[in-house]
Design a protein that fits this description.
alpha/beta; 27% strand; 293 residues; 4-stranded antiparallel β-sheet
């Protein structure tokens, strides 16, 4: 069992209670699904299927891949119990590099910087090539990626309610008592969460990911002869434009001349969202607006 698989199996409770409550990226996928109307979707690193209800508004077939057998089991159980008869849902317990089937999809999804769970460029190229191999000629790969999770520097323990995470949840009470901490050790980008009650730590979980710069991602897309379109630098259009720390965009075969940027940005502008993906940017925005913690 790999380090990532072991960590994520142990964190199934945390994912169910906390990560599945994060909805900061929902509007992005709602917009994409409305624009593209994909009938088949493949998500690589799907967890328990957090995004599947959004996909099901159009898709008739969804395949989710995840390394954690615990999360796959939870996802299968949930969607079996809720009987979504209009959509075929398949969970596959494998890694995103070696997954193979004979299907092609209208949309392939890499959400929440999932490529950072791969430790080498060889693995990342394999995963991206795998996505290309399973993509319809007129389809798109959507990538939501940042080189660092939450913060681009190491931090001490930060109360979740006093950080950028507070804006990611419709019901912020779910993170009362939780704290997170970042440690950057060379290429390792380690995120820890814990529940702290009056100085007593009742729960703690760690996620080990690996720095994967946006420039490297774009280079890998070029190596695979995929065109790309960088649409957003944060989850909202009012981020730092060319100074943003996140790549939110799409990749496709070069002969696919469709552009999603104009339609997607129009939808984002109408919502007027600001949802930072980096803690330093969030704190700076709070300071400028006079709401600093």
């Amino acid at each position: 069992m790999s380090l990532s698989q072991s960590e994520y199996n142990k964190s199934t409770y945390f994912y169910d209670e906390i990560m599945n409550a994060f909805k900061m990226d929902f509007s992005l996928y709602e917009d994409l699904i409305e624009i593209l109307k994909p009938k088949s979707i493949l998500e690589l690193g799907c967890g328990m299927g957090r995004l599947f209800p959004i996909f099901m508004t159009e898709a008739k077939e969804i395949t989710g891949i995840d390394l954690s057998d615990e999360m796959i089991a939870q996802g299968r159980k949930y969607y079996a119990e809720h009987k979504f008869d209009d959509t075929i849902i398949e969970f596959v317990n494998t890694d995103m590099c070696s997954f193979k089937n004979n299907k092609k999809y209208d949309l392939v999804v890499f959400s929440l910087s999932v490529l950072k769970h791969l430790s080498s460029d060889i693995e990342r190229l394999k995963a991206l090539k795998n996505a290309k191999d399973h993509l319809n000629k007129g389809g798109f790969i959507v990538l939501d990626h940042t080189a660092f999770l939450y913060s681009s520097r190491s931090t001490d323990w930060i109360d979740a309610k006093n950080s950028l995470v507070i804006d990611w949840l419709p019901e912020s009470i779910v993170i009362d008592g939780y704290q997170w901490k970042k440690s950057i050790e060379g290429k390792k980008d380690i995120l820890q969460w814990r529940y702290n009650d009056s100085g007593q730590t009742d729960f703690e979980v760690k996620f080990t990911t690996y720095r994967y710069d946006i420039e490297e991602l774009i280079d890998h897309l070029s190596q695979l002869e995929l065109s790309h379109e960088h649409i957003l630098t944060e989850w909202g259009i009012n981020g730092l434009s060319n100074k943003g720390k996140r790549f939110i965009g799409v990749a496709s075969y070069p002969d696919n001349k469709d552009s999603l940027k104009h339609d997607l940005l129009e939808k984002v502008r109408k919502r007027n969202e600001i949802l930072w993906s980096d803690h330093d940017l969030y704190i700076e925005a709070q300071r400028i607006s006079g709401n600093a913690i």
